[in-house]
Design goal:
The complex is a heterotetramer, with 2 copies of chain A (about 350 residues) and 2 copies of chain B (about 350 residues). Chain A is about 40% helix and about 10% strand. With about 350 residues, chain A is α/β, with parallel strands linked by helices. In chain A, strands 1-9-10-6-5-2 form a 6-stranded parallel beta sheet, with helices on both faces. In chain A, strands 3-4 form a two-stranded antiparallel sheet. Chain B has helices spanning about 20-35, 60-65, 75-90, 105-115, 115-120, 150, 165-175, 230-240, 260-270, 285-295, 320-325, 330-340; strands at about 20, 40-45, 70, 90-95, 130-135, 160, 180-185, 200, 215, 220-225, 245-250, 255, 275-280, 305-310. The radius of gyration of chain B is 20 Å and the shape is globular. Classes of the chains: A alpha/beta (about 350), B alpha/beta (about 350). Bound molecules: thiamine diphosphate (2 copies) and magnesium ion (MG) (2 copies).
């Protein structure tokens, strides 16, 4: 059945270090833009870890270290009008969609100026203008929600595609099945990015599915699939470009499986005792998506090291600024907790009752 | 082969107003809202060609087409999720559960996504989730649910249950126009009950969500109830009248947020209250209402707030068992007599 | 991928009427036994319809008319120790597993002597001895339950297989996905019988899945599948025999798709307005599973018409007797409703409270 | 590659008795039951190699092997269903939800299959469904749930929530030995709270399901509560003592079926009651308890039964918001003062 492997991971020729596919029309500006987003993602996360260690981040920090290319590359192929619903580890896609680091910092620090005003954490918010629907914790649930976004868009004659990211673990949920199946039946332009990053918390993919490739799951929904090297940012861009074209032209849903690797634990506290010896080090050394892309940019003479350093410096400036901004935000006022469950013009806020005051 | 349609079947559009049963009233309400507002659409299992298991959406497909009348796979999670997503886009979905019992399979998305969306990031979800609820029709443990208690402790969901055609139409319209998610429960025993048939206005109207209705005024004792139990309460009231007891019956109509003011006003007048509902007693909405009365009208109470409800079991199938399970007129009468004598 | 079509439906040669596969080792006794179960199923249902018209059946009646071979043939390949969890339309499998018609009659009539004592309806009960786990209404939910049966059996070193029946509609549920996926990962001997009977209530299969064959869904679980002519009782037996052998030997889960057709509405009240003209009549005339098997038995000289009539007469006697027995049962005592929610030695029955009696 | 294990990591088996936190007590309980009874097994996400997100099942895999310590896919429905099926076979599953919030995805099978099985055909389901619940740890709307109210109106499920290591161990053992499905909620804030650390007996013991515990005796007013709020109640009681108020604190321990006799006995003594819980007020278990008191001990009440609970919103993430959301010691003190003055 229709599983394309054109951009699937390949062994490097005779021990040469891995780079990225050259099979692309991406312009220099775009390539450098991709680089900027990769660095932005990694460095925002590193800053979050710092803030976490300073106990300024209130909840957990979830890293995408080693898998940034999947989120960045796929999201970069979308238009402003297209929608994404990412996983916690798809910060890169969120940034590409135009969410500013300041919003992410403020959210993590539970600040009043964060987009949820301190009500929810990390990337659990949304921005309809930018086509960003933040996830909830419950894995799988965003798949049917995205199906509904596309159903609504179709009724409004909007020509958009919707991308829902899901993990090797999240695909085991009933919600994933129901949402994708319904989208497939309705031939909605839903693109699933299935992230094969080897683990769901501590659970290896072999305990999530008896399939070898997540792409095989597409067959049961009657939709086409592609396997992509998730650590090749250019390849990720290319497969999404094709998938989005296909879906936008009325082809219906598509599944992209991105093969990548989660180098950090599930969250900062995870000791990764379940990981085989040397595995992480192997990926770090041989298959880091940013290393690979840097090598590519240099090899292909898209940029020299100076240019790359300049980009990185710009990224750091942005992060510093945004982080300062977020730190300067106050915490929310306590009573704010009571507001906005419903439209408060109709149902009053749920203020803490004064005891027997009447 | 199976896509062609057998007979030249075409369901008549509903009347505007006129005499209507509960099911016709709901159908009128949805139909009119779909005509009025192109963002309103219907989604659920067998709601299209078949017109819904109870024919609430009968004829909508012919009138409004496949884009706005969507037959789904058997996927309650997808129905809820898709309604949420479409609502985010500015649409106003009316999602049907074939029986409200199947809401359990949409529970996750309802309580986590639909209920919390506005709170989390300000995105209101104007979606209606409706379906047939209730027991007393010999349908056994899986087609008899009263589901309100599942949702009472999750802030962010409104819950409505009409007991008359007038209210049914007014409330479905209000629910569709509401900026927040509304669960709309329809007691299947009332759908076609001739006793309820009544004349509806030809003009557009709504019944405000959050407002109870005094079905019967009385001075001696308040029965607070809703849904099919309104009839049980009225029948009990009539019997009690013979004994000289003047019973007030309040139909909550909205279960969340329920009308505290109306309840309190009634109880402050009668000083005695019975809460009557069809779901099992323990953990039912009766506890919330009784506790509220006992807390906020304590000084006006001349007796305990009594709850009359179903026993704490699944809903059994066999008529003698289901009759025992359900609160009967006699149970209400007994409770009222004892409380009156207090 | 591994989808076997050896026993899939075939067009009859040059307009000859359909019969059944001859590719079988089934003995004469067994073939006649199969015939008996087919007739028993059909005639029990017809009796139920009569009882329904007499308003003796309290709830609805759900017919398997035209698809009896799927349930009967597949269940007949199982051992006493094996488990099934059928759909409402798999009465044939229930009877093959040794549940007596009297139990079914008593259940439908909500009688005290029915296996649930009037608490639940139709085939909503179970019999652990006979390996029968009755379904609940909620479609899909029995798949994970059967997975658990098999997990338990494995811990007890029992060599059993478990068969879960599911409709083209029920496969759209999240519970189906979660249950089968887990069983596949655990390589449990779960056999799914997916009944492609063209409808889920009024909804055609094309609105349940974008796949052409339900068997394609097996791919996404990494398990093998077979497509069988569900109206060929011998073929149904054969594919289950093979699947059960495979599963029992440790091969893991298997999916059997049975192509059949639901000739009656969802339940007795359904006017089938959604069915295309002539469709039902076509299946009745050309592809009735009992007609086909009769033809087979006569063609193959397994039996003559007299023998078949004799079997049918026996079936009718059994039904008469069992129906009488069920009718003679009392209705349950009202207070019975209060018992057996919990082990009543620990938690007392939930008797209706006497109002303010203290 | 990913199946080999990195370090020679081996978790120590738990002590028998000795000083223990809540999490250690639960681990001891499960461990001992698995040793005692070969039908007991553990199933859930990351319960094996990782030992569970909160390490409740740490070390079980090494001790009891993959057959009895089963890492599942992310499929709460399958976890519940599989536990039910295995229980039908005579096994005694202990199923973990990684956070109790994810029970919503198992809600359908819990309320429909697990709860109704014995009633429908006499098949008892001795299964335990457990996991970390509760708020106050800055985990936001999806990792802070108190789920008891979801299940109170579904007959057939027992619900337990311990507030001390002793009770935690005794109740998990009782739950595992119980012939019916038990939901066992563990407040994550209490897991490792040093204040709770206590000496456990070395011998086998259970704490009977259905029995409350008087944590503090008093004459003036009863606070009925459970879980983490027991500490809030005790702290409030201490403060109130300074004002000469003698507060009784009842820890329900079992939420379904809850110990009416103990509550009534206390209220008949003190004549005043506060129900305190952590979930939102409306639709919370407090309504059921308050209504029961107001109904069955009406004549003994010298004031309304007050409920102190969280406000009716999702659980917010930011500390000032969550603190406002949650009932604080001060709220309990205020309520008690007012009620005492009644
Ligand atoms: C329905 C549900 N169950 C359990 C969890 C707890 N949980 C959070 S992340 C996680 C693992 C996710 O793995 P995967 O889907 O592969 O995504 P990854 O973390 O690898 O990006 C689990 C089990 C959850 N969030 N939702
Ligand atoms: C979860 C769930 N949703 C809805 C229903 C209502 N319902 C009962 S039968 C049915 C159609 C079933 O179709 P299929 O699975 O194909 O089985 P068939 O009736 O064809 O045997 C529906 C929608 C249900 N029983 N369970
Ligand atoms: Mg993963
Ligand atoms: Mg079907």
């Amino acid at each position: 059945m229709r599983i394309s492997t054109k951009f699937a991971p390949r062994k490097a020729d005779d021990g040469k270090p891995l780079t990225c596919t050259t099979d692309t029309d991406l312009k220099r500006e775009q390539l450098l833009d991709l680089y900027r987003y990769l660095k932005l993602t990694r460095l925002v996360e590193e800053r979050l870890v710092n803030l976490y260690r300073q106990t300024k981040v209130v909840g957990g920090v979830f890293r995408s270290l080693g898998q940034e290319a999947t989120a960045v590359g796929t999201a970069y192929a979308l238009g402003q009008q297209d929608f994404i619903t990412p996983l916690i580890r798809d910060l890169g896609a969120v940034l590409v969609k135009g969410i500013r680091p300041r919003d992410v910092f403020a959210q993590y620090m539970a600040k009043a100026w964060g987009p949820s005003g301190g009500r929810d954490l990390n990337i659990h918010f949304g921005d309809m203008e930018r086509g960003f629907i933040g996830p909830i914790s419950h894995l799988g649930d965003m798949i049917p929600v995205m199906t509904g976004i596309l159903l609504g868009a179709r009724m409004q004659n909007k020509s958009i595609v919707g991308v829902a990211y899901i993990g090797d673990g999240g695909m085991s949920t009933g919600a994933f099945h129901e949402g994708l199946n319904f989208a497939a039946v309705q031939r909605l332009p839903l693109i699933i990015v299935a992230e094969y990053n080897h683990y769901a918390y501590s659970t290896p993919t072999s305990l999530q599915t008896a399939c070898r490739d997540l792409a095989e799951k597409a067959v049961g929904y009657g939709i086409p699939a592609t396997i992509v090297d998730g650590n090749d940012v250019v390849a990720c861009y290319e497969v999404m470009k094709q998938a989005a074209d296909f879906a936008r032209r009325g082809g219906g849903a598509v599944l992209i499986e991105a093969k990548t690797y989660r180098r950090k634990g599930h969250a900062e506290h995870d000791d990764q005792r379940y990981v085989a010896d040397g595995e992480i080090e192997w990926w770090e050394k041989n298959n880091d998506p940013i290393d690979r892309f840097e090598r590519y940019l240099l090899d292909q003479k898209v940029a020299n090291q100076e240019k790359l350093d300049e980009i990185t410096a710009g990224v750091i400036r942005e992060i510093d600024e945004d982080c300062d901004w977020a730190e300067s935000s106050p915490m929310p006022q306590p009573e704010e907790a009571a507001y906005r469950v419903f439209d408060n013009e109709i149902v009053p806020p749920s203020l803490r009752p004064k005891v027997l005051e009447n | 082969m199976s896509t062609a349609v057998k007979k030249e079947h075409k369901s008549a559009p509903p009347e505007r107003g006129g005499p209507a049963t509960l099911v016709e009233a709901i159908r009128q309400g949805i139909w009119e809202e779909m005509e009025r507002d192109p963002t309103v659409f219907v989604i659920g299992e067998d709601v299209g060609t078949y017109g819904g298991a109870f024919k609430v959406t009968d004829g909508l497909l012919d009138q409004f087409g496949r884009e706005r009348v969507i037959d789904t796979p058997i996927s309650e999670g997808a129905i809820v999720g898709a309604a949420c997503g479409a609502a985010l886009m500015g649409m106003r979905p009316v999602a049907e559960f074939q029986f409200i019992d199947f809401i359990s399979a949409g529970f996750d998305l309802l309580t986590n996504y639909a209920a919390k969306c506005r709170y989390r990031w300000g995105a209101g979800l104007p979606a209606v989730f409706r379906g047939p609820c209730g027991s007393g029709v010999r349908s056994g443990p899986f087609h008899s649910l009263n589901a309100e208690s599942f949702f009472l402790n999750t802030a962010g969901l409104k819950i409505v249950e009409p007991s008359t055609p007038y209210d049914a139409k007014g409330l479905i319209k209000a629910a569709i126009r509401d900026p927040d998610p509304v669960l709309y429960f329809e007691h299947k025993k009332l759908y076609r009950l001739p006793r309820l048939r009544e004349e509806l206005p030809a003009e557009d109207y709504i019944v405000e969500i959050g407002k109870a209705r005094t079905v019967r005024e009385g001075r001696d004792l308040s029965i607070i109830t809703f849904g099919a139990m309104v009839l049980t309460a009225l029948d009990a009231a009539e019997e009690l009248e013979k004994e000289g007891l003047d019973i007030e019956v309040i139909d909550l109509r909205t279960l969340a947020p329920f009308d505290k003011a109306a309840i309190e006003a009634s109880v402050k007048k009668t000083n005695k209250a019975i809460v009557l509902h069809e779901a099992s007693r323990t953990g039912g909405i009766g506890g919330e209402i009784a506790a509220t009365i006992a807390e906020e009208a304590f000084e006006w109470l001349d007796g305990p707030v009594l709850r009359v409800a179903s026993i704490d079991t699944p809903v059994p199938y066999s008529p003698p068992l289901e009759d025992y399970y359900l609160p009967q007129i006699k149970d209400v009468v007994d409770a009222a007599r004892k409380l009156a004598a207090y």
